[in-house]
Structure formats: structure tokens, C-alpha cells
Amino acid sequence: MSKILENQVAIITGSTSGMGEAIARRFAKQGAAVVINGTNEERGKKIEEEIVQEGGKAAFYKADVSSASEVEAMVDFAVEQFSKVTILVPNAGILGNGLATEISLETWDKTLGVNLNGVYYLCRYGLPKLIEAGGGTVVINASIASFKSFPQHPAYCASKGALIPLMKNIAQDYAEHNIRANAICPGPVDTPLIWDSVKAFPNADSIIDETIGMTCVGRLGTPDDVAEAALFFASDQSSFVTGASLTIDGGIMT
Amino acid sequence: MKTIDLTGKTAVVSGGGGEIGYALCVGLADAGAKVVALDIKTDRVDGSNDRITAVRSDLSDIAGISSAVEDIGEIDILVHAAGVNIAAPVTEFEEQAWDTVFDVNLKSAFFLTKELVPRFRAGCTGKIVFISSISARLGYPGLHAYTASKGGLDALIRNLSTELGAKNICVNGIAPGTTKTGMTKGLWEDEKKCSAHEATIPMGRMADCKDHVGPLLFLCSDMSDYVTGQVVCCDGGLTSVQADFINLNLREGNE
């Protein structure tokens, strides 16, 4: 069976664990060269090696996505390594939990810096490369928090909410360059982040079980569930879909 | 592009004899599925493809639906693509027209689901996909019954997903944007109207029936096992900009 991301080059931020890692591995299996990004160098190098051992193309780049200059350097690195960039997956995210009146201003700034500015920076520096390549796709990893609140997640929800109109703007303005932009919006997915997230809930001990009961399909999502949706949006399978957001949440938002 | 393999799956497609419906049947068949196309007119399907079988059925007749699906054994996929449009100004809209549109577009979706849920094969995730429309979200003068029926489909998708998850069936939808078919001929045959309409679509063109195949295969495959109750707009970005500044005359009667 032919690989559907053959000749594509993807940058996936925050891909040293969780959903980002699953997306990087899935894209590499489908033929894309992937830039793995995070701040954990050891973990990133290990994923790079494993992908290469399996016959894929991968390169780790250590960068803090809340730094515009580091993101710009990462995009240049991707071009140096793989000669072009065609897929952007801004995925890195942090929680910054606490009551709106109690989190520090630093926490607010840091959360918005990673979750919103980090996405913007990758688009800011990555989109010109997509244009140079003749087109491409942007798959923003948002969240169901783009549409609903969670207790003590003010910075997280605000930052994720902002990603949907940002995505729609990119879809509108860059369609003429043969670039599509869409958002995936995961619900409860079994990643390291979710176990930190539940600590902010008043019913932290039981919330995961209760959440499973709130899904239509009776389980937590897996990082692979999210990677499959990312693959759909990154590939020609969704060639007439742009400006769309899709929740991958087992039906919580119904 | 071929990544999705539906070999061994059986799909029922209502409205499979229509333009979008038939394109979806071919997409499923090309991915390896065995397809049963239900439609009142089956000439497009008959003898066209070894993997597609036509069953003549009037989807506005609920009793007829039962008998049409009688001989279909176990299934994995149900696609409801049957749809009709009757447009008229609100003061001239006939009750019969309203009923016809609702019977075919919405009522048959529910009763097909009711009839076929017990036939879904055990052991793998079943997939139901309703073909809705972006007109569930954007208004069009004259299309009162059509848009309301499609809005009803979106609500039904959400509602069925809450109950059928326990039966291991995901329920989702695709909302096509303006697609070049006989139904929209009045729009795309008029060069001026067509180019004005296309100027409002970020991707700069109307959809072709085949554009909806990729999203359908995604929603019918195990790639989307954690996606339920959702509608994917396949519209070149039209709803994301909410068709801003579109002249209402361009919408009239031409969803």
C-alpha cells in the first residue's frame, strides 16, 4: 500500500511525548520526514533514532516554542535537513492551572506563550516555507477546551480557544497558496498531560472514571486516535477540507 | 492516495443512485467494501461496478425501507446520502413539499438507522455517516425545508451518537459545501453567479462529488474510532469564513 505522506516534510512541536510523539511516528510511517521538537533532548533523540531504525526520516531539534527566535531557527533547521517544509503541526501545550485570581502573571504569560504564541510562531516562520514548496497543510492541535471550560484551567482554555479563529484566519488567507489549515480538538486522551490536568479538579480521584462515563464510546482516547485524525488533515484525504475543527473525544462534546 | 482498506466490510448507502451518493459508493468500493446502494432511481448504479449492488427503494416510504433492507445480511457501515431539495418563498411553500423533503432527508435517516442497527457486525466499530449540508449553518432564501432538515440531521447525529456508542457504533456526518450536481445547476451554469459564488470560497471553487470521498473513508475506517457525534465540513473553507459578504441573490434556490 502506498504511503500517503511520501515526499512531505513535517514539523511537529512538542513531539517528545504524548500526542505529538504519536503524530511524529505515524507521519514517519506514512513516508514523511519529521522534525521532532521538545525540550527533553534525551527523549527526542531516542524517538529520532527509533524512527530512523525503522527506515523513516527524522531529526530532533531542541527548541522552546514560546521563543520566536528558537522557532525560526527550528524552521531553518528543517529546511537544512530535509530541503523543504510542507506540514506544520503546532502541538506543544502546557496547563498553567489554578484559579484565575490565583495563578501568577508569569504562569498566565508562560501558558499563552507556549499554547498560543508557540502556534503563531510556527505559522509565522513556517508558512513562507510552505508557500515556497507550492503548498501544504497546517494541523493545529487545539482541544475540547477550545469550546468548553474546565475547573481551574483559565489560561489553558483561553489559549486553546484562541487557536480556532487563528486557524480559520490562516485557512482563509493562505488558501490561495494551496495551503489548508484545520484543527484537531482532542478530549480525554491518555497522555502525561491529562494526569496533571485532573489534579485541578475538585474530584481528582474519580474524575477519570467519571470522564470515561461521559464519553459515548466508554473509554479514554489514545495518542494514536489523535494521530490518525492529524494524518487525515495532513494528507490529501481531506483535500477540500479547510477551516474545520474536529473533536476527537469519544463523544463528550455531544 | 490509498491508505484506507475496507476489504471485508459491507456498506449500505441510501441515495446511492444520486450524484454525491454514487461517488461515495464508488469510493467505498474502491477501498474494498461491498456496497448496497438504495435509491428510487438506480440507473446510474446498475451494472456499473462489481462491488456495488443496487436495491430500488423509495426512501420517503418507511415500510418500503424495511423491505428494501430485508435481504441485506450483516453490515459494517451505513451512509445516508439521500436528499431532495424543493425551494420556494415562505409564503408559497406547500405542505406536501415540506413533508417530501423531511421524509427523504431526515425521517428516512432515522428509520434506516433503526432498521439497520441490529444488523451491525459484532466485534468491530460500526460506522454511521449522514450526509448533511453546510446549509444547516448558513441560510439560503427559499431553502426552508432543506436547511431545517439538514439541521435536524446534525442534531440527530449528536443524539444517536450518545446512544449507539454503547453498541460500539460511531455516528458522524459530512457537510458538503456547494457541490457541482444537478441540484446546484442553476448556480454553476450561470457564469456570473458561479464566479461570484466561488469568490466567497477560500479554496476558490465549488466541490466536486469526489471531494467528499476522503472524509467519508476517514469516518468509515478505524482511523476515526474515537470520533463520534461530529460533522466534518467539506466546503473549501466556506463555513469557516461564514460566507462573509455573500450576496443573498447568489444563494437563492442554489444550495
Examine the coordinates and then state which fold CATH places here, giving the name of the CATH topology of chain A: Rossmann fold
**Average pLDDT rating of chain B:** 92
CATH class descriptor of chain A = Alpha Beta
* Relative helix content of chain A: 40-55%
Greatest interface and its residue counts?
A-B, 42 and 44 residues
Number of strands of chain B: 7
Helicity of chain B, as a percent range: 25-40%
CATH superfamily of chain A: NAD(P)-binding Rossmann-like Domain
Rough shape of chain A? Answer: globular
Please report the total strand number of chain A as a whole number: 7
Please identify, by name, the CATH architecture of chain B: 3-Layer(aba) Sandwich
CATH superfamily membership of chain B, which one?
A: NAD(P)-binding Rossmann-like Domain
Strand portion of chain A: 5-15%
Adjacency order of strands in the biggest sheet of chain B: 3-2-1-4-5-6-7
Structural class of the helix and strand makeup of chain A? alpha/beta
Descriptors:
heterodimer, A: 254 residues, alpha/beta, Rossmann fold, seven-stranded parallel beta sheet, 7 strands, B: 255 residues, 8 helices, globular
Explain this structure.
The complex is a heterodimer of chains A (254) and B (255). Chain A is of the alpha/beta class and 254 residues long. Chain A has a single domain (9-248), classed as 3-Layer(aba) Sandwich (Rossmann fold). In chain A, 45% of the residues lie in helices and 15% in strands. Chain A has 8 helices and 7 strands. Chain A has helices at 18-29, 41-53, 68-82, 105-132, 154-174, 192-197, 207-214, 223-234; strands at residues 9-12, 33-38, 57-62, 87-89, 136-141, 179-186, 245-248. Chain A has a 7-stranded parallel beta sheet, sandwiched between helices. In chain A, strand 2, helix 2 (41-53) and strand 3 form a beta-alpha-beta unit. By secondary structure, chain B is an alpha/beta fold. Chain B has a single domain, classed as 3-Layer(aba) Sandwich (Rossmann fold). In chain B, strands 3-2-1-4-5-6-7 form a 7-stranded parallel beta sheet, with helices on both faces. In chain B, helix 1 (19-30) packs across helix 7 and helix 3 (95-116) runs parallel beside helix 4. The A-B interface holds A 1-4, 30, 168, 171-172, 175-176, 180, 215-219, 221-222, 225-226, 228-229, 231-232, 235-244, 246-251, 253-254 and B 1-5, 158-159, 161-162, 164-166, 168, 170, 177, 202-204, 207-208, 211-212, 214-215, 217-218, 222-230, 232-237, 239-241.
